[in-house]
TrEMBL record:
Protein name: Translational activator of cytochrome c oxidase 1
Free-text function comment from the UniProt entry: Acts as a translational activator of mitochondrially-encoded cytochrome c oxidase 1.
Key words of the record: Activator, Coiled coil, Mitochondrion, Translation regulation
One BP term from GO: regulation of translation
Highest rank taxon of the organism: Eukaryota
Species lineage: Eukaryota, Metazoa, Chordata, Craniata, Vertebrata
Cellular component, GO annotation: mitochondrion
Keyword presence, Protease: no
Domain TACO1/YebC-like second and third: from-to ranges: 137-292
Domain TACO1/YebC-like N-terminal: 62-132
Length: 296
């Protein structure tokens, strides 16, 4: 009787547990959880003690999924942007030397890099590496709907870059076409925010600032901007004039602008966008210029 009483007391103090098989375990039995639910130090070949951490693992996985989906694309875009800036630096150095005081184009590119928070070490590395041998290539291309593209590239492997550009063109409806270069002219471009600036006021500012023309556009974040166009040698002067007029200068640089723009159908525009995106993602491509009309 006493033994039965003791057993009942033990059962009260140590209630039986339901195992995964559905059998009630007697006191003193242990439960071994699946290996996928067990964490133990890598220096042990087997766990000294089993710990159930499935819920913690799942929580961590869900958290990473959110971080990957939200932060990942931004980090990738940021990395690509810095890579393109590095190429722009190299091109500017090859054209005018490593001294920003004597190389206006380099000074403008460096200002853009700083405005986008490009690390100082990355900037210095790009300038240093710019003195290494490299070829500047320009590809004249016809794309979907007859649009014209001018592709600037910088490479130390002409054959490899030629092969990759031709592959991307063949895959996305483009082809090499001589004579496209004549439809573009290189100009100085000063960019300022375009919020709350009417078209008439923009034209007035262009005249007062000494610019040849002004274009309304959008930046990568779809915010309105104004692009003041001028002769390359007048870029610094126009920038200074616009600054004195109280405008915030977003960026200054040299661009290839089309002499004649072309409107595309919706399908053609989608195909052209895919081609431009594919070319822009090529590591050796510095810039892709086009003559596609941006319909409002």
């Amino acid at each position: 009787m006493a033994g039965a009483a003791v057993l009942r007391s033990l059962r009260i103090l140590h209630p039986r547990t339901l195992a995964t098989s559905g059998r009630f375990l007697d006191p003193g039995e242990c439960v071994l959880f699946p290996a996928s639910c067990v964490l133990y130090p890598p220096w042990r070949s087997s766990p000294a003690r089993s710990l159930q951490v499935c819920s913690a693992l799942c929580a961590g996985h869900n958290k990473w999924s959110k971080v990957k989906n939200i932060k990942g694309p931004k980090d990738v875009a940021r990395c690509k942007m810095f890579m393109k800036f590095a190429l722009l630096i190299k091109v500017a150095v090859k054209e005018g030397g490593t001294n920003p005081g004597m190389n206006v184009n380099l000074a403008n590119v460096l200002e853009q890099c700083r405005s986008k928070n490009m690390p100082k070490t990355s900037i210095e590395s790009a300038i240093k590496n710019a003195t290494k041998p490299g070829l500047q290539l320009t590809y004249e291309v016809r794309g979907p709907g007859g649009c014209m593209l001018l592709i600037e590239a910088l490479t130390d492997n002409r054959t490899g870059t030629n092969h990759e550009i031709k592959r991307l063109l063949s895959k996305n409806g483009g082809m090499i076409s001589e004579g496209v270069r004549h439809n573009f002219i290189r100009k100085g471009v000063v960019v300022v925010p375009g919020q709350n600036v009417s078209t008439d006021r923009a034209l007035e500012l262009a005249i007062e600032g000494g610019a040849e023309d002004v274009q309304e556009s959008e930046d990568e974040e779809e915010q309105p901007i104004l692009k003041f166009i001028c002769d390359m040698v007048e870029t610094s002067k126009v920038r200074a004039s616009l600054g004195k007029l109280g405008l915030e200068i977003t960026s200054v640089g040299l661009e290839f602008l089309p002499r004649i723009s072309l409107s595309l159908s919706e399908d053609q525009l989608e195909a052209a966008s895919m081609l431009v995106e594919a070319l822009s993602d090529c590591p050796d491509v510095v810039q892709v210029w086009d003559n596609i009309q941006a319909d409002s």
